[in-house]
């Protein structure tokens, strides 16, 4: 699987989202990572489905929508209808994970499931075939700019082994503290999709920033 770079608009200029998204599209991004936060599951409040619908009108890139919200199963349809290409829910925030993943896939979009740093991989044992993407949080979700939690590397490695043993080919995405310095180790451990906010949007040369995530500093 080729490496996917998904800049997170959480670190972008929200007053100029169209300009920001066009800049990463021109710079070589593969996906646009959209963090949806409700102020309940995680402390901040960010954006909702109406903004996602607007974003879908201004980019050709897939919208990788990460729902950090309580009772996400009640909201997935609104994000699918808004134009999300991928909808990821947290195992810690849904009551019936099997059902919601199957429902997302039935709508013709990729279904993702995310784990917080302290959540064990055993929670995924019975849904490995039902998700298209597994998102490993390498920071505690909520705020951008946090430092990478090193134990995420072992978690990624173990998850890739679980998938290989089951004969399942799926995306493993990593979100939190991703930089050119640790990107190579993440890919070596088994990740093929990297979410980077500050590492891309804080750079004056976003083409170079994205290329550095692919090849190292």
Shape: globular
Look at the helices and sheets and give the structural class: alpha/beta
CATH topology name, in short, is: TIM Barrel
- β-sheet strand percentage: 15-25%
Per CATH, the superfamily is Aldolase class I
Task: Determine the number of helices (DSSP H or I, runs of at least 4 residues).
Answer: 8
Radius of gyration: 16 Å
**What is the mean predicted local confidence, pLDDT?**
96
Strand order of the largest sheet: 1-8-7-6-5-4-3-2
CATH C-level name: Alpha Beta
> Alpha-carbon distance between the termini?
22 Å
Describe the main β-sheet briefly: 8 strands, parallel
Question: Number of domains in the coordinates?
Answer: 1
Fraction of residues in H or I helices? 25-40%
Low-confidence stretches: none
DSSP strand tally: 8
CATH architecture identity: Alpha-Beta Barrel
Order of helices and strands, N to C?
EHEHEHEHEEHEHEHH
Protein model, in words:
- With 217 residues, the protein is an alpha/beta fold.
- It has one domain: Aldolase class I (TIM Barrel, Alpha-Beta Barrel), CATH 3.20.20.70.
- It is built from eight helices and eight strands; from the N terminus they run E-H-E-H-E-H-E-H-E-E-H-E-H-E-H-H.
- The protein has helices at 17-27, 49-58, 76-82, 97-106, 152-166, 180-189, 198-201, 206-215, and strands at residues 4-7, 32-37, 63-68, 86-90, 110-115, 133-137, 171-175, 193-196.
- Strand 6 (133-137), helix 5 and strand 7 (171-175) form a beta-alpha-beta unit.
- It is globular and about 45 Å long.
- It starts with a strand and ends with a helix.
């Amino acid at each position: 699987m080729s490496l996917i770079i998904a800049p997170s608009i959480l670190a972008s200029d929200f007053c100029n989202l169209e300009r920001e998204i066009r800049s990463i599209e021109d710079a070589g991004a593969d996906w646009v990572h959209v963090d949806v936060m409700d102020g309940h599951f995680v402390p901040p409040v960010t954006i909702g489905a109406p903004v996602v619908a607007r974003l879908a009108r201004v980019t050709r890139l897939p919208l990788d929508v990460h729902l950090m919200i309580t009772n996400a199963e009640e909201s997935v349809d609104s994000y699918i209808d808004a134009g999300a290409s991928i909808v990821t829910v947290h195992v810690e925030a849904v009551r019936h994970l099997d059902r919601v993943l199957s429902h997302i896939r039935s709508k013709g979009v990729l279904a993702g499931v995310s784990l917080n740093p302290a959540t064990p991989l055993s929670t995924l044992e019975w849904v490995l075939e039902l998700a298209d993407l597994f998102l490993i949080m390498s920071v505690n979700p909520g705020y951008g700019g946090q430092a990478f939690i090193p134990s995420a590397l072992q978690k990624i490695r173990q998850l890739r082994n679980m998938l290989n043993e089951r004969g399942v080919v799926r995306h493993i995405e990593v979100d939190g503290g991703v930089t050119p310095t640790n990107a190579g180790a993440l890919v070596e451990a088994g990740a093929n999709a990297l979410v980077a906010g500050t590492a891309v949007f804080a750079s004056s040369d976003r083409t170079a920033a994205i290329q550095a995530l692919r090849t190292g500093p």
